Amino acid sequence: MINHEVRTHKSAEDFPIEEHLAYKIAKVAADKVEVPADTKDMIINRIIDNASVAMASVVRGPVTSARVMAQSHPHSSDASGNGSTVFGVDGKYSAEWAALANGTAVRELDYHDTFLAAEYSHPGDNIPPILAVAQHKGLTGTELIRGIATGYEIQVDLVKGMCLHEWKIDHVAHLGPSVAAGIGTMLNLDVDTIYQAIGQALHTTTATRQSRKGLISSWKASAPAFAGKMAIEAVDRAMRGEGAPAPIWEGEDGFIAWMLHSPERTYTIPLPAEGEEKRAILDTYTKEHSAEYQAQAQIDMAFALKKRLAEEGRDLADIESIVLHTSHHTHYVIGTGANDPQKMDPDASRETLDHSIMYIFAVALEDGDWDYEHSYSDERKHRPETIELWHKISTVEDPEWTRRYHSNDLSEKAFGGKAVITFKDGTVIEDERAVADAHPLGARPFGREEYINKFKKLAAGKVSEEEQERFLAAVQDLENLTDLNELNVHVTPDHLAKAPKKPEGIF
Q1: Largest alpha-carbon pair distance within the chain?
Q2: Residue from 247, 233, 31, 51 nearest 146 by CA
Q3: pLDDT grade, residue 378 (50/70/90)?
Q4: What is the C-alpha to C-alpha distance for residues 344 and 387, in angstroms, rounded to an integer?
Q5: Which end of the chain is less congested by CB atoms within 10 angstroms, N or C?
Q6: Is residue 228 within a helix (H) or strand (E), and if so which, with residue range?
């Protein structure tokens, strides 16, 4: 890997295009290096993972809205290309709208893969738009693999070197450029075209983090899907010869100067050298539980504590307080450091509560289980004993957990924390967990079998067993797949009929 220093340059400076970060990323995308076997295997795992959570969310409101919007944009037989598929249904649709629908389905439950470093990300968000373009262009599984490998690589590298949330910019600002780069790789575009597409994608996908603050709405699920849609359109414009603002990151009125810290800040972005394999997907990790990633280890710890307290004859009603000692991110984004009263409110939305470690820890401690539907149900969040326990929980930042969160040493990088439970009689019980059980360094790391089991669990009752097996056979033979429409998954008519009736929009 080569570390590239990125800073603001005045318009009057001599700053050749070859030094622009967007150009350097474009060169990585255009590099025809082979994809290593372990990267290929993990790409298959993550396509399965995305399909799993999409099936679980397919009849939820935001997903239904996005799907109906896509269905209002069917692919015309008179148009070029083949069109793209939409999760759950038949038909071919415009690629950018299929990407919006599928991206929303994947993101809705906050249940797919994650990478955390200087910034946050869900790199699996790259897959829906890249796949939609691959289907539209009639590409093969091998070409799709190359595109996804680049998408993951660029997003992870940007996340390692450039913090956005510090300046209240949403993390999808790294996703637009990574999708554009991945599509560029897949379509074998030249460096100059990819460069323009990356610039346009960043320019059109920058937004504030209010989507993940306060009254969190369904836009949280749609924001990454919208970024993917914009990236597709950016590549399309660039292929037609249209340019982008430049230099997009380093310009005097550009992204770093005015969206991030200031013109004085320098960022260091690692990128593969020419001929270097794209392996960043191997640094990422998926979720066993449907909640913000920093809650994964805390949920597993709560399960263990429930058993321990039961063995010791302890009653949860006798708890005086629970303090979770954890990282800066966990404390300030999903903890009491966020100062969001909604995170303690039983009438809050699901999108808010899957970003409340206080609620999540209380339910996990009471139930010893976590379910993507039941754990967030109205009945569950309104139980008086749950509300009482929930409101006894607080978080504090521990510098050591923050240091481990930001460590570049994957053997010590951690997203967990320590729980200190104080009982009314003065007894204190503590436990800690660095990583989730499903993490590569956890007690039960996810492999192919676990991804398949997750798919079967979430598809049960929604997708016929025959359709499940057809999809799993197709995706596991991805390198030899010539019809990428086989990566769509159809749900049963009975399940699709459960989708809410939504008001009509423009389309």
Answers
A1: 76
A2: 31
A3: very high
A4: 8
A5: C
A6: helix 219-239
